[in-house]
Amino acid sequence: MFSRSQMGYRPVPLPDRAELTDAEALAEAEAFRDRMRQRHTVRDYDTRPVPRAVIEACIAAAGTAPSGANHQPWHFAAIAEPALKARIRHEAEAEERRFYDGGAGDEWLSALEPIGTDAAKPHLQDAPWLIAVFAQRWGAFDDGTRFKNYYVPESVGIATGFLIAALHHAGLVCLTHTPNPMKFLNEACGRPESEKPVMILAVGHPAPDATVPAVAKIKKPLEDILTVFE
C-alpha cells in the first residue's frame, strides 16, 4: 500500500545495469526470440502439480512491469482449490454458451473456427492453477484516501505479458481466457469493486497428447510487423 510520505520525487542511481557488447546484445535478443517462439497456447493439461513457489515467482516477475505513474494497478489471484476452479468453470461456461449461441455474431464465430474453440472449457478445471488477472481502477493510500490509477489497461497488459513470458521460462504452458462479462470473478475471488477482472490464465504442464491448432503456428513475418526509420 502506498503512503503519502513516499510520493515525493527523489532520484537514485540506476540500481541494475547490463553492460553488453553489441554482439552480446544481439545474441541475447536472438536467444530470447527463439525461446519465445517455443511458447504455445495450450488447452490440454497434465495432472502433474506445479509448486506454489513457481507460481509466486512468476507473479513476482509480473509485478516488476512498468506502469502509469508507477501505481502498479494490478492484482493476481492464483487458484488451485478444486471447488473454486469448478465454480469458475461453471460461471465461465455459462457466459461462453451465451457467446456461442448468438451473442458473438457470425463474423466473430467464423474467425474463431480455425482455433477449434467452443463453449466447453474443461481446462479451467484440468489445469493445476488458474490465475485471475484484475485491473485496479483506483487505489488507496495507507490513510484510506482514494487515488486514481492511470493507463490501467496498458499497464495490466504489460504485466500480463511479463507473466506469460515468466511462465514459459519456467517450463509451463498457459491459456488466456476472457469470458465476458467476468464480474463473477470479483465475488469468487473476494476482490473489491475497484478491481475489474480482465483475464483468466490456465497454467500447468502440457498433457502428453496436447495439441495446438495448426493455424496458431502461422505468425506474421517481421516485415509485416516492423517499420524502421533510421
UniProtKB/TrEMBL annotation:
GO terms of molecular function: oxidoreductase activity
Entry keyword annotation includes Transit peptide: no
Keywords of this entry: Flavoprotein, FMN, Oxidoreductase
Chain ranges passing through the membrane: none
InterPro entries listed in its UniProt record: Nitroreductase, Nitroreductase-like, Nitroreductase/BluB
Keyword Flavoprotein: yes
Domain named Nitroreductase: residues: 37-205
Pfam family, any one: Nitroreductase
Superkingdom per UniProt: Bacteria
CDD domains noted in UniProt: iodotyrosine_dehalogenase
PANTHER family (alphabetical): IODOTYROSINE DEIODINASE 1, NADPH NITROREDUCTASE
Stated name of the protein: Nitroreductase family protein
Organism the protein comes from: Psychromarinibacter sediminicola
